[in-house]
Amino acid sequence: MMVSLGLTLPIQFKMLTDFENFYEKMKVKFWLKVILWGVSILAMSNCRGKTQAVTFADVCQENNQTKVHLRGFLHSSQATPNLTSNSALLVENKNGTGGFINLLFETPEMGETNSEVEIIGTVLKDKNLCVLKVEKIETPEGEK
Predict the structure, then answer these.
(1) Whole-prediction pTM value?
(2) Which of 13, 60, 63, 114 would bridge with 130, disulfide CB 3.0–4.6 Å?
């Protein structure tokens, strides 16, 4: 059984095209929202493991357990006997001037001294102590 509303063919056609246009707009809006949601989730998940670049003046101002990366020159350190034998200094300038921070290595292989490196590590802070626990060392030749 069919019910007729008495609508003429042009009106029925207009209603169908209006509904189709409405449906297409809603479908585009839906997929646009899904894409934007996915991009935002991806961006947030990528930010969790990111390190932030810091300067020598700012590294010890960071919060405890913050991941950072810092560029400088490795120097062996006999001035830090209270840490471990796996310690060194990262200094700002090749001649040893400028800022510095104590580095703490988990393994004894710290790389060549006086070489330029970029350290990726975690800031470890105590009341009077600030060190950078090394996770990765990058050199101009590649990663160590």
Answers:
(1) 0.56
(2) 60
